């Protein structure tokens, strides 16, 4: 069986009730989505967008528009994008960054933060915000993006998040872990065959280590939002289940989003997962939304 065939089988596993329509979204061109950066502009009236393009509001995602894929360059190179008044970002990522409830008094960590799209959304709450990434090239891109978007209050750290548990022991109230992953939820049917070789198992080990470190850094009563753009249960349900089975003080909370979702799997193949995974969600892919996985976990003690 080729890796691409294996991918389609995996897609049918995680989206069994809507497989055909979801499969089509990996074949059709994806629309380019971008949001208003409310740090710099309070309304679309303050933004000059390229003319002669059809703009569509993205359902369920306020202050977000989409254009056809052949207009990508016009948007990404527009004055609005270059000056940071808009930011090209998938609505699934936007909704999940907004889903983490923040207060100004919170200490917040964006772990594996680059390129910074979610960081800039978290910054709107004006909390004490830390952004961490271990890749130097991605870290510098993160800082450049924050400057362009007008985010000035972030504390940056270029470090391996797996090694920060003791340094920031129980320091943060809220943590967003958009974990490094295989990224296959963003593949296209036209993706070269060589790119489909699964890296899920390697990602799993890094993800479990990052989630364990995040748990060390989270204070009692705090929230961890675990996110990936991977379809594989090994990178999602298995990672969260690994944490839940080792931490008696961890519970998954319901996560309500304003787009179609499916609950986390209770099992796959012969693999069983923690009962709490029924509260996890997978965003149902469309020609605008990517099929991201998300799980909101509370630390009770």
Automatic annotation (TrEMBL):
Pfam families: Methyltr_RsmB-F. It comes from the Bacteria. S-adenosyl-L-methionine binds at residues 112-118, 133, 160, 178. One of its GO terms (molecular function) is RNA methyltransferase activity. One of its GO terms (biological process) is RNA methylation. Keywords: Methyltransferase, RNA-binding, S-adenosyl-L-methionine, Transferase. The active site is at 229 (nucleophile). InterPro entries: MeTrfase_RsmB-F_NOP2_cat (IPR049560), MeTrfase_RsmB-F_NOP2_dom (IPR001678), RCMT (IPR023267), RsmB/NOL1/NOP2-like_CS (IPR018314), SAM-dependent_MTases_sf (IPR029063). Residues 18-300 form the SAM-dependent MTase RsmB/NOP-type domain. PROSITE patterns: NOL1_NOP2_SUN, SAM_MT_RSMB_NOP. Belongs to the class I-like SAM-binding methyltransferase superfamily. RsmB/NOP family. PANTHER family: NOL1_NOP2_SUN FAMILY PROTEIN _ ANTITERMINATION NUSB DOMAIN-CONTAINING PROTEIN (PTHR22807:SF61), NOP2 YEAST -RELATED NOL1/NOP2/FMU SUN DOMAIN-CONTAINING (PTHR22807). This is Putative rRNA cytosine-C5-methyltransferase. The gene is rsmF.
């Amino acid at each position: 069986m080729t890796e691409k065939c294996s991918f389609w089988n995996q897609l049918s596993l995680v989206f069994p009730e809507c497989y055909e329509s979801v499969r089509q979204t990996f074949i059709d061109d994806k629309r380019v989505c971008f949001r208003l950066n409310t740090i710099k502009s309070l309304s679309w009236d303050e933004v000059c967008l390229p003319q002669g393009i059809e703009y569509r509001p993205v359902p369920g995602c306020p202050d977000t528009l989409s254009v056809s894929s052949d207009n990508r360059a016009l948007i990404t190179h527009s004055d609005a994008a270059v000056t940071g008044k808009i930011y090209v970002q998938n609505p699934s990522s936007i909704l999940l960054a907004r889903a983490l409830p923040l207060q100004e008094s919170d200490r917040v960590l964006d772990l594996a933060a680059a390129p910074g799209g979610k960081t800039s959304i978290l910054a709107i709450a004006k909390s004490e915000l830390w952004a961490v990434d271990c890749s130097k090239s991605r870290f510098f891109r993160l800082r450049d993006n924050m400057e362009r978007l007008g985010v000035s209050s972030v504390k940056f750290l270029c470090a391996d998040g797996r090694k920060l548990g003791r340094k920031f022991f129980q320091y943060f109230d809220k943590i967003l872990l958009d974990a490094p992953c295989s990224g296959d939820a963003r593949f296209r049917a036209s993706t070269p065959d060589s790119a489909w070789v699964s890296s899920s198992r390697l990602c799993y080990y890094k993800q479990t280590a990052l989630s364990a470190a995040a748990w060390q850094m989270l204070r009692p009563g705090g929230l961890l939002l675990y996110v990936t753009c991977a379809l594989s249960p090994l990178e999602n349900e298995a990672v969260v289940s690994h944490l839940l089975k080792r931490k008696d003080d961890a519970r998954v909370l319901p996560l309500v989003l304003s787009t179609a979702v499916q609950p986390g799997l209770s099992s796959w193949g012969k693999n069983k997962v923690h009962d709490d995974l029924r509260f996890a969600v997978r965003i149902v892919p469309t020609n605008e939304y990517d099929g991201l996985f998300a799980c909101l976990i509370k630390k009770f003690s």
